[in-house]
Request: fold
Amino acid sequence: MAAAKKKTAPKKPARTTQKGKTAIITGVTGQDGSYLAELLLGKGYQVYGVMRRVSSFGSTGRIDHLLDNPNFHKVYADLDDGPSIDALVAKVKPDEFYNLGAMSHVRVSFEVPRYTIATNTLGVLTALEAIRQHSPHTKFYQASSSEMFGDPGVPVPFNEKTPMIPQSPYGVSKLASYHLVQQYKNGYGLFATTGILFNHESPRRGENFVTKKISLAVARIKKGLQDKLELGNLDAKRDWGWSPEFVEAIYQIMQHDKPDTFVVATGETHTIREFVEEAFKHVGLNWKDYVTFHEKLLRPNEVPKLLGDATKIRKTLGWKPAKKFKDIVREMVDHDLQNL
Ligand code: NAP
Ligand code: G4F
Reply:
């Protein structure tokens, strides 16, 4: 007698398309977002890159080379416009949502504190709530920051257990959203995960951050297009890494088998002065002949020293940085020399 045919359960519609997983990236026009979009496209993802709809076209300089890629989908939404994020999540129901969009400049956050909280905290709440309501299977990554540590009154290096006493509206906004992520993970069971990233740079760094301001000025001075470089506090110390490597860490955090918190850092710290000195030295100039101080560039509060301990991510996910401080400085200066 022929064996009875086994009944097979009807197939569930696949969340993952044949072309690969789907991901939403907010902040895709920024430094990290552009590298992350490249990384995910390279892995076969359908990438929904969120751009803000404003009256002007907005800047797409970092992602122009991706706009014709059939797997890259330019979508309009804004973290300050809740319904736009809600509708996007409801429509795409992505496998992964990378929240890199932010008002990301620390000094500016002192000038626009309310706006900073609206984008960096309420915007995160909006995204988490959209996922909870419409797409609870979506994994969520929040771009947390070493600025959250502020000046905690304990010796460096800082790790996942170090107390956090932020020193800026930006730091407060990121710390509040960090706690929201924990709440949505523990309270609602979402895969809500986060990396506490220390400063990371690249030729795509925004021009109002100190490293890019320095590399651009050095290139212009070398070419006779600029005389002086005006800076604020040269004594602050930062743990500077390389953005493409840090974006790889973000990806690995999202692929981990559980949502968790990871410090991402190089474990080396340098003063702004050392960055300046190295950049000028690279083109054969003495920084002291060109750099001037202006107090308008000081901040009401400063984070004096950042140095991260990335032991957890190295041991758990095998991530470690390769690019060294001097190479970061030189590559940024060389890029600006070639692309002025
Ligand atoms: P970035 O270059 O300044 O990019 C910020 C991005 O956020 C831009 O694409 C910007 O879009 C977008 N954005 C701003 N307001 C928005 C809003 N209301 N809705 C949607 N998008 C908005 O920043 P980044 O250096 O790549 O950093 C990425 C993320 O990591 C940020 O959240 C930052 O706070 C965080 N972080 C950065 C570092 C670092 O050292 N780079 C370290 C720790 C954490 P527009 O092009 O329209 O302005
Ligand atoms: O390059 P910065 O503006 O970066 P900051 O404040 O450390 O923040 C960056 O890193 C954070 C992670 O720790 C991110 F969350 C954040 O989004 C951003 O990417 O300033 C670095 C240091 C500060 O101590 C500042 O006081 O450089 C000092 N500085 C001195 N002169 C200056 C200047 N900073 C800027 N932007 N411009 C100056 O002329």
Residues 104, 106-107, 145-147, 198-199, 208-210, 213, 231-233, 236, 238, 272, 297, 299, 302, 306 surround G4F (ligand 2) (CB under 6 Å). Residues 1-18 have pLDDT under 50 and may be disordered.
